[in-house]
What does this fold into?
Amino acid sequence: MSGVSRARRALSALSAVLALLALVALSTSARADDVLVLKDGRRIAVRRLARRDGQVLFETTRGERFSVAEDEVVSPPLDSIPLADAPPPTGAPAAGAATAAEQVLVLKDGRRIPVRRLGRRDGMVLFETTRGEAFSVREDQVASPPLASIPVVGGAAPATEAREQTLVLKDGRRLQVLRLARRGGLVLFQTTRGEGFSVAEDQVVSPPLETIPSLDAATPMPMPEAMPSPAPTVEASPVPVPSPGAPPVPAVTAAEPDFVPVRSRWDLPFPNDPRWPRGRLIDPYNQNVLKGDKPIAGETLFLVLTGSLESPFESRNLPAGSGVSAERAGSQEFFGQYGQFFTTPRATLSAELFKGQTAFRPKTFAIKATGVFDLNYLRASERNVVHIDPREGRSRRRQDAALEEAFAEVKLADLSPSFDVVSLRAGIQPFVSDFRGLVFADTNLGARVFGNASNNHWQYNLAGFDLLEKDTNSELNTFELRDQRVYVANVFHQDTFVHGYTLSLSYHRSEDRASDEFHYDRNGFLVRPARIGTPRLHALTANYVGLAGDGHLGRLNVSHAAYYAFGTDEDHPLAGRQDIRAGFGALEASVDKDWTRFKATVVYASGDDAPTDGTARGFDSIYDSSNFAGGPFSFWVRSGIALTQTAVSLKSPGSLLPDLRSNKFEGQANFVNPGLLLGGLGLDADLTPKLRLVLNANYLRFDKTGSLDLLLFQPGIRKAIGVDLGGGVVWRPKLSENIVITTGLTGLLPGAAFEDLFTSSCATAACGSPNKKLWNAFAVVKLTY
It folds into this structure.
């Protein structure tokens, strides 16, 4: 019995010895990342291989151990796989000899790179990845392993390894690189920051491809000499061999690569997940080649098609004159019935073709054209409002089509690696000269040189416009020049004094030359010169110097502007020759609290109290479109208010200024006006992500009323215009700009000045007009593709 026990113990010891020999054989024959190819098509990355008893034993790169029958192995050849029962081959490296055991190189930017070899030389860490690629990084970029554990490899680095070069690509980029190589149709490069990238060979301009060494050749890139590293630890446990009845060997796949070359970032596939919608040509929100989300040709040529339909509807109560043929029988007053209804649906289609890199790089060139079709309809309660001929009735319907934009843009030069550029744009183009459109905001014919500097801290514009005449009813451009030129130079500096605050300096010049003949609008009214006083053709030159700012100072949001106007009006119809000396100032301050913004606004425009003294002190703009003091939610800003029986307006629609012009676009600037004092409060509240509430209240006064006294032959006109109240909502049902619905109601509670301007105390029959409430109810639906 004791003999049997001793035999069993001997057999167990023999089995343990054989298993230990098998593991030793595996460890001596280990090669980093060999690939075991089986007849069923599987390719398994392995660390160790050995043969025993008709089986091939292997350990995967994940540390898992399996075996398969020898007749299932395609590669490597069986005779190259050592027998587990045989002693280590002669010349096998002993423990501590140079090997290529896999390690992980951890960089400070978070990358973890599996490597075979590591070495240090000349302040760089050289490494070979498990794919055989050779790279290097600066020593100060390595987090692990410790630099002291990485051996120093001999000799000074060849000059070509650390020599800085410039890689020039076809898209205009110039990259400073330390190393270049070619492989598989790609150019691999390492930047001076130690970052590794690749581009397609056909995107490289310089250096010539033949001068860039190829990794496809037999000679590899220079690598550190073999470095000592400990031999793999041999575990004292046998390699499990499945029994004949055991389940089949589980499938083992090679680990996914860490880096995959991407020839086009535009063709990255979306995940197969319903949460990632695919774009279509009729889809304006998701990825669409017609919306500039992908190039239409090559890698940098884009097309952007934009279509919009905007339909405003307004019902309003505004002052109107009774005209030469009053609608009410027996009416003898200047003041007619106030009610009006107005709508102007407008369809816009634009196409822009440009070359560039979308958001992060300025355009190399661009061509854009925009066509507009406008249908406008006005129904008034009095004749002589829609047309100078009372026989035209009380309603007017007009349609108009125009080429509203048509320009070409080209980048003239790159000024720095930070995409500071200088560009030129010429043609019919939009331009807003300051933050809030207070002096010049229009789309017109001109040329503009613009650009940025100092890593975009500075932006600048130098523009000149030869203005086109506007259509009276649609306010769209025509192809007729109007003998007025505008020049603008401005500069913006970001982060002035504090981060988040931008300061702007500007100069404007308007040269409105006298036309050869009087100009009548499409409704038959004389608008140039204005039909007041003694209408005479006259030239007007105005210059503006301004300082404006926009941004935030801590929690306080601020937007402000100050302008001084000077120049000459050669022959004002009411006051003769005038030297222009006028000023303007505006300030909006706001504070954000959760989903609300509380605003306070102050506006001052100087007025003229002595119009015949030869100095025009009333401030007027060139073409303003003021988004200030409530903007479209302010009755004063939104409405055009006629000064009855004078053929001029007290103010134009979309303007802050009571400038007494005959027409905002077709008339001339008028610096003999009463000016304005405005103080206002406002509230913007994002009730939901889709719905915004806007409330606004302004108190308004004329600065000086001498010009009104002279114009109306009515001395003693008071200054209080009244209280302007407005409110409305902006609804974006799709959380985008594709559908926007705006509704609101604004009104003016008239003050003493309006009582003086628009009421009468006549006591005869059919005479006398009480002071009326003024209001404007509106809705705007805008659809954009």
